[in-house]
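1st attempt posting a full record on here, be nice pls
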Amino acid sequence: MVKDDDLKYTVGYRKPPRHAQFKPGQSGNAKGRPKKATAVDDVLYEEFNRFVTITEGRKRRRLSKLRLVVRQNINKAANGDLRAAAMLLKLLGSQKSDGGDNLGALAQELRARNALLEAAEKNRDQTTDVDEPSGPTDEGGGSATQEAGS
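the predicted structure (as tokens):
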């Protein structure tokens, strides 16, 4: 049987037949819009902001992975790892101070400590060169280290 509404309904421009129209609660795009491709920085942001539980002494704390990575690098730098110190100084140099914190003073202190470490290492290298007994030298040419330094 045909309903009265169907008889009065005319099919035309922007008026599809009733059987071809979307049913109530049904979308025209059932699968939806495809998801955006994930970028590396999005994945890093997501992973660095995950929390993990660590144990310090007898206390358990929840910290983000980013905070743990920074903490480990600071500890390595404090123990004399020059690579970790250089990375931290590079990070501090790239950050801009907004005037509300003491990041500039901290960066300056870290640079000074790094310079002291490098100077101490250089002095240690020089003292070991002087303390080493030199081999027999020729009268005319001198030692190999003197020639390389000239």
